[in-house]
Amino acid sequence: MAPAASLRVEVDGGPATADRLRHLALVNYGHLTVMQVRGRRTRGLGLHLARLDAANRELFGTGLDGDRVRDHIRHALGDDFPDATIRLVVFRPDEAEDVSILVIVRPPHDMPAAPQSLQTVRYERPVAHIKHVGAFGQIYHGSAAGRAGFDDALLTGPGGVISETSIANIGFFDGDSVVWPDAPLLPGITMQLLEPALAARGLPSRRRTVRVADLPSFDTVFVSNSGGVAPVGRVDDVPLSIDPELVKTLFEAYESVPWDVI
Q1: CA nearest 177: which of 215, 207, 214, 154?
Q2: Which secondary-structure segment (H or E) carries 42?
Q3: DSSP string, the chain
């Protein structure tokens, strides 16, 4: 059944009224997760719920019940959105004892499989380990990169140390293993799912400092987020190597991840 509209927004299982959204519009404080849903299933559901619970404890001092989260997602999907992109935001209205859950349902989205191009910028997300709503900097740099003809911005710190992109994790194949940046970053759900899936194919993961100057030394560079995975073909004006066999292994590892019933 096709959805009646391309967008649905609910707060705590009900209509997203002005009163329910007032606090979130005025106070930019909360956390979120984004997931792709196909057939009312998503990859890494347990990791999403763990992310929300941990962030809620850090931001609001209390856990977040996973069954409540699942109930709100199912309600927002209804009978007419079996496939969707879910953006779930948790915030606490003024003087409220408990948090509120905002669920935004949009059409499904997959990352383009074509090689991506990235523009380096000097920016590090504050409180990078939390997927939070304070995203002005990354939106600004991502949009600027798009206007310059790139797919995304590559966030870097002092000395050109790479952390992540504005909307994705970045990984590197060095021939023997997968290297993830040892820098402040969000441990993305897809990144967490890829690590064991790639290890099962003979590519263990490790962390180390990676600088922009190091990029040409890698066999393949790739990005990952809720939309999937893709190789990186260019950073600034520097073309990067892409090993077809490594890319094939990357896609196979991603596709091997099971879908969980919400």
Answers
A1: 207
A2: strand 41-43
A3: ---SSS-EEEETTEE--HHHHHHHHH----EEEEEEEBTTEEETHHHHHHHHHHHHHHHHSS---HHHHHHHHHHHHTTT-SSEEEEEEEE--TT-SS-EEEEEEE------SSPEEEEEEE---TTTTS-BS--HHHHHHHHHHHHTT-SEEEEE-GGGBEEEESSSEEEEE-SSSEEEE-SS----HHHHHHHHHHHTTT--EEEE--BGGGGGGSSEEEEEETTEEEEEEEETTEE----HHHHHHHHHHHHTSPEEE-
CA separation, residue 130 to residues 138, 177, 240 (Å): 14, 26, 30
Mean pLDDT of 153-170: 98
The mean per-residue pLDDT over the stretch 134-161 comes to 97
> What 3-state DSSP class applies to 35?
strand
- Given pLDDT bands bounded at 50, 70 and 90, which one contains residue 6? confident
Domains of the chain: 8-106 (3.30.470.10), 116-261 (3.20.10.10)
pLDDT at 245 over 50: yes
User: Pairing state of beta strands 41-43 and 259-261?
Assistant: antiparallel
Q: For residue 69, which of 106, 107, 99 has the smallest C-alpha distance?
A: 99
Tokens of 3: 């959805």
Residues in the chain: 262
